[in-house]
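step: validate -> pass
step: tokenize input -> pass
step: predict -> running
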Amino acid sequence: MSDATSPEPAPDFDAMTRDIAEVPAVEVIVTVAVNLMSAAAVKLGLTEEGDTYKDLDEARKLVHALAGLLDAGATEISSFHAAPLRDGLKSLQLAFREASLVPDEPGQGPGEKYTGPVYG
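step: predict -> pass
step: emit ->
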């Protein structure tokens, strides 16, 4: 007999709300930053799948959003958390510059509005 016809249980939104209430803001900010970094790496073709999911337009948006988050949240998450995230951001910015057929002018690349020009 198959369970394919049995309905999925409804999500327990009360439990989810309680769970998120217990998570410190630093952890939420860092988790979002890591998710943005991971998505940007995929869109830059830096994963095992290579160019399968490469999309520089999407990567630009993700890197820019990451830079904005780090710019706004760096003072809130301490340098212990911010420093490795900034290093990851710079690596993504450099990878974007390298992947672009027509590189942006210094200071015009994704996120450079927040970080300043990124050079190799």
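step: describe -> The CA atoms of residues 58 and 81 lie 25 Å apart.
step: cleanup -> pass
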